[in-house]
Design a protein that fits this description.
This protein is mainly alpha-helical. It is about 45% helix and about 5% strand. The two termini are about 25 Å apart.
């Protein structure tokens, strides 16, 4: 089951950039960390306002979107 509302997009927060709900941390930052070879614990250590559960849920949401959208 994929939970909702872990990502927030509001024009008042970073100009509408998707962020982790309740934070000002862009979701793109997590993807950049992982793409750069850094680990989830490193990301969470650098951005303590993001909870592990939030990051995992966002990754699950992105995985679900990727695997269910037609190519």
């Amino acid at each position: 089951m994929v939970r909702r509302n872990m990502i927030r997009r509001d024009c008042e927060i970073l100009g509408g950039t998707p962020v982790f709900a309740g934070t000002r941390v862009p979701v793109q930052t997590l993807l950049d960390y992982l793409e750069g070879g850094q680990s989830l614990p490193e990301f969470l250590g650098d951005f303590p306002t993001v909870e592990r559960d939030q990051a995992i849920t966002v990754l699950e949401q992105l995985k679900h979107i990727l695997l269910t959208q037609p190519v």
